[in-house]
Every structure is written in structure tokens, then in C-alpha cells.
Amino acid sequence: MLKMSEDCLFLNVFAPSNATELPVFVWIHGGGYNAGSASAFDPSALMKAGNNGFVSVIVQYRLGPYGFLSSEEVKDAGGLNAGIQDIQLTLQWVQMYIGMFGGDPGRVTIAGESAGAGAVMILATAYGGGLGPTLFENSITASPFLPQTFHFNEQVILEQYWTFAKSAGCSRLDSLRCLQAASTESLAFATAAVASKSLSGTFSFKPVVDGDLVPQRLSKTLDGPLNGKRVLTGNNANEGFAFTPQNITTLDAFTAYLRTYFPRLTADNITAITSVYTTPADVLDSDVAPKFATSGVFSPTALNQSQVSTGHQQVANNFYAEVTFACPSYWLAGAYMRASDRAAFQYQFSVTPALHGFDTLFYFPARERPVDAGVSRAFMDAYAGFVAEGVPDDWPQKTAAEPLMRNLNATGGRRIGAGPFTMFEGADVAQGDVDADVWEGGRRMRCDFLRSLADELVI
């Protein structure tokens, strides 16, 4: 039997021997705010790459309904976005106690991947930027996850709450008190009941707009004051494959996908999206063309070609990837780039297959998961340099005049695996700086377009 418990507020601290006033790296795991574990991440190799020049803290926070159940009742009890509050409490703990482990509370970098990066993005804009640099100085967001984000009292959130409460055996009278007293088994059953109503590739419990910690949706808060001073942010080349139905072979199927997964889009919105995201029909009718990774610079681009799909399937994969991971990275970099006394560094991880989450194998390498040492070292050097100095090794700073990002890739090696999961063992690192604006057929333009639809996309 799977054991579950709300007793999960803990952190793991890794410190070099004789550490004294070292920078601090705080890692927040991903998992869609519904899964994941701090115990899966050992920063020893990353710390070694940085010459043991920093202290690491790996955070566990409440997930699923324990961390992200929302309603008027939960708000009145002060429990909205409890999982994010857990992370904030960790950062406050770091400020008070990390000196006992040889860390410097004035030089904290918070970092995460997927939902962990989404949490970092929330903290970067929390309380309308009112935190400043008090809890952290730098932030790293790897594939920052930006799901549809509703206000805590919107109908879709309230329906989810009452489905959960009813499934746990709680009536409308004192529902929250009943849930707090319910058994773990009852709550697990209720969690499954809510999940059964969710669309494939989506997650049930997520952060909500609470008017305080999350004052507005991220597409709006990124226009305002920011917490921290510097950001290092990036995405993977093939983020959308794991989250998009893999049966989209026609334009009609793509528009049906948009209507189902983004129901607030109007007919005019969908027409505009298909105009921006599709290319001539003779290229797009099916997912049968040879599949190969794009260069990012020359045609074909990620609009209709990748290692995992082509045609309208790739259109859908890329649309989801951009609206949920890649464009949030662009928007975050842009916010820090434009703000005074702030700095942004951006990258794309393109090492095949470059699926969502694949990058973590390179900066949290383990012996049972061998990866290419050269690429891994380049990635770890960048992360370690950013933690220690606020600059990711020799990567360029992104500016309005030079919107550069680092494309981290590999060349050569021995083919292992097949299909979309093909990898090349023993490959050499191949990295270079590219224009982020024109990358993959003009990604910056598409991100600007998606942000103009933020209300309809609920981001």
C-alpha cells in the first residue's frame, strides 16, 4: 500500500566540511505540484563541479490537495497555496539558520525544474515584488511550469473543492474541519476522484490567485516589481511531447484540442492561433515525415518538425510547450532584462531527446543514469558559477540590444535507444550563443502573441 502523509515538511542540507559563509543553493523539485520528492535529488556532483564552494538545501513541500486545495473555506483558514507557503517558510529558515551549516544567508539562489521552477517564478513576483532581495538574491528556473491559473473562488476551483470534499465523505457543513480530520485513505480516494475528472496531461491541484502571495496571474505580475536580482532561465527543446495527446494529425484535430484544453478561447482566438502556428497543409497533414531535431536557426523549425513528431502533432506539441514552459521562460527573462539593477541569462537545452525533465540528468547526474560527461560538466559549471558569482560561467547576459541565449547541445557519440527516446552516449558538448528572438522561426514573436491571449489562456 502506498503510504501518504501530510507530515512532509522537511529539508536536506548538504554542506562541505569546514564551510564558512558560502553561497546557498536551494532546490525545489518538480512534479506538477502533485508529485515528486526531495529525496530524488543529490547535489553532490553539482557541488563538486563548483569546487564545493556552496551549501545546498533540498526542499520538500506539501503536494496535491495537501498543498493546493483551494476554496473560500481554505482562504479563511489561511491555507491557500500552502505548498508555496512551505517553500517560503524554508527560505525564512535558511535566513535564520543556514549560518550554522556554513552558509551565507545574504547569497541565496533558489532553483527548480518544472513545477519547482514555477514555484520559483511565483516567488520572484510574490506579494507584488515586496520581498525584494530579502529571501534570495538569484533564481534558476528550468522549464518553468505555468499551468492555467484560476482565482481561488472561480467556479472551476470551487467545483474541484466540493468534488474532493464529497468524495472524502464531507458535507457542506464544516467541510474543511471534516477534511482536516479525515483519514489518509479517505483523502487519497478523494484525490483520485478529482484526478479522474482531469484531462490527460494535466494536473489537478495547482497554485491559485489568492490576492496576496499570488496577487495576480503571472502574465500580469511579471510586469511589476520583482524579488531577487538575477535570473537564469531556460527550456528544453521538446517539452510538449509528454503532455499532449499524440493523436493530432489534422487541422481539425488541432483546433478540437485547443477548444478542449483551453475552453475560454474564442473562435477568433483559435483562428489567430492556427494562423501563427501552422504552415502550408501539404507539410502538415500527417505525422509520417522523417523525424529529426531542428537546428533552431534554419528551416524546418519547431513549428512542424522535431525528433518526436511532425505535422499537426508537432504543431500541438510545440504550442503546449511554448504556452506552458518556453514562453514563461522568455517572459521571466524579459522581466529581469528590462528591470533596473536586474540581470537575465537564458538558455535552451537541446541534447536529444530533450524531453521535459531530461535536463535534470545532466546537473543532478547519478552513476546509475550515465550521461555525457562533457555536456553535464558544461551545465553544472553554469549552475555552479551562477550560484557562486551570479554569472553562469561564460554564458552571455541577455539584453534588449543583444537578446542572446545559450543553446546547449551535443555532437557525435554512439546511438542508444530508438524513436523519440534516441540518445547519443559519449557525445561531445556543442554549445553556442543564438538570438533568442528569432530562434525556432521567431519564438519571441509567438510568445508575445500568446501573452496577448493571457486572459483566454488563463495564464
UniProtKB/TrEMBL annotation:
**What Pfam families does this protein's entry cite?**
COesterase (PF00135)
Q: Name one GO molecular function term.
A: hydrolase activity
**InterPro entries registered for this protein in UniProt:** AB_hydrolase_fold, CarbesteraseB, Carboxylesterase_B_AS, Carboxylesterase_B_CS, Lipase_GDXG_HIS_AS, Type-B_Carboxylest/Lipase
The leader peptide range reads: none
Q: Does the keyword Hydrolase apply?
A: yes
Alphabetical UniProt keywords: Hydrolase
Q: What is its EC number?
A: 3.1.1.-
Q: Which domain of life is it from?
A: Eukaryota
Q: What class of enzyme is it?
A: hydrolase
Q: Which residues form the Carboxylesterase type B domain?
A: 3-402
Membership in a protein family = Belongs to the 'GDXG' lipolytic enzyme family. Belongs to the type-B carboxylesterase/lipase family.
Q: What protein am I looking at?
A: Carboxylic ester hydrolase
Q: What is the lineage of its organism?
A: Eukaryota, Fungi, Dikarya, Ascomycota, Pezizomycotina
